[in-house]
């Protein structure tokens, strides 16, 4: 009996910023498996690559099927193909990671089998998805050091305080507000809108827009 060729799947790690106990944290949506193997376990959004779609289109489909949203940023992460990772069948997964903006990160389709979790408090995951999430988190932290990737996690207009909170959420530590403001203002990647945050007491903070095009985030 001839051996079956390996299947090709595409999975997407989707990051967004949500409030968690009064603190901004990086979250991601997971899908509860409704069939074996790993019935009932949470897993990354993904599935077989369709014959008529590109890898990138498949990654965007995962995002849309899970959250109903489009990504502010999407790029390929890595290919995972250990022989036993999809037992009993051989599965090679091409993984993308995506960022969605803060104002939509809490939105998902009305599905009891889809939920957002903080990346530092994930439930047990199916297959090797914990390893995949670790790769994606490290990539996000690394890119924070040499790109303006944090802009893709923010609303179109944001305060410097909100930008700092995103950096703190990714790095997992507090940053000095004054030093961060100086670096942000000197980066040449922000432009003031002339407006201020609505509803703030005393002196409302100024709102900014990113001047970085999406293709320059990579």
TrEMBL record:
Record-linked InterPro entries: NUDIX_hydrolase-like_dom_sf, NUDIX_hydrolase_dom, WH-like_DNA-bd_sf, WH_DNA-bd_sf, WHD_NrtR
Pfam family, one: WHD_NrtR
Residue span, Nudix hydrolase domain: 5-139
Gene3D superfamilies assigned to the protein according to its UniProt record, in alphabetical order: Nucleoside Triphosphate Pyrophosphohydrolase, Winged helix-like DNA-binding domain superfamily/Winged helix DNA-binding domain
Protein name, entry field: ADP-ribose pyrophosphatase YjhB (NUDIX family)
Record organism: Amnibacterium kyonggiense
The organism's taxonomic lineage, starting at the top: Bacteria, Bacillati, Actinomycetota, Actinomycetes, Micrococcales
């Amino acid at each position: 009996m001839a051996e079956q060729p390996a299947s090709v799947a595409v999975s997407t790690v989707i990051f967004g910023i949500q409030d968690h106990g009064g603190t901004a944290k990086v979250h991601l949506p997971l899908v509860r498996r409704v069939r074996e193997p790993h019935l009932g376990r949470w897993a990354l959004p993904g599935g077989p690559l369709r014959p008529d779609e590109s890898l990138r289109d498949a990654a965007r489909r995962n995002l849309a099927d899970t959250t109903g949203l489009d990504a502010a940023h999407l790029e390929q992460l890595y290919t995972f193909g250990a022989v036993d990772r999809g037992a009993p069948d051989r599965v090679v997964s091409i993984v993308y990671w995506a960022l969605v903006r803060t104002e939509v990160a809490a939105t998902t389709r009305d599905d009891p089998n889809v939920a957002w979790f903080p990346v530092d408090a994930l439930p047990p995951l199916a297959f090797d998805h914990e390893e995949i999430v670790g790769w994606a988190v490290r990539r996000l932290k690394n890119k924070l050091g040499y790109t303006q990737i944090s802009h893709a996690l923010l609303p179109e207009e944001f305060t410097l305080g909100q930008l700092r909170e995103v950096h703190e959420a990714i790095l997992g530590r507090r940053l000095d507000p004054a030093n961060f403001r100086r670096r942000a203002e000197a980066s040449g990647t922000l432009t003031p809108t002339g407006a201020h945050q609505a509803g703030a007491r005393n002196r409302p903070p100024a709102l900014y827009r990113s001047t970085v095009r999406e293709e320059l985030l990579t």
